[in-house]
Amino acid sequence: LGYDNGKRKYVGTWFDSMGTGIMSYEGDYDAQKQELVCRGSYVDPLMGVETKVRLVTRFLSDDAHTFEFWGPAPGTDKEVKWMEMSYSRAVAGR
Length: 94
Fold this sequence. Notes:
Elements: E1 2-4, E2 9-14, E3 23-30, E4 35-43, E5 50-61, E6 64-72, E7 79-88
Antiparallel strand pairs: 1-2, 2-3, 3-4, 4-5, 5-6, 6-7
C-alpha cells in the first residue's frame, strides 16, 4: 500500500495462496472517520469473471487498526464481509 501523488489516491495490491492472480485497488482516506476505503477487482479463478471488492482499514488508535475485506456473496451481487483482521502493537519487551 502506498500513496500515488499523480492519482492523489492510495494504491495497493493483494495476492495470496488462494489463487494465482494479483488484485489491484485504490481508494481514499477519510480523516474524520479515520478510515481508508479502497475498491478493486480481480478475476475469480473458479468462475473466470471479474469480481469487485471493497477493502476498509479503520485506524482505532496509534496502536490498533482493523482491516475488512468485502465482496459479493456467492451467486449474488449482495456485498458481504469475507474477512476481518485486527492488528495491535506489541508491548516492548514482551
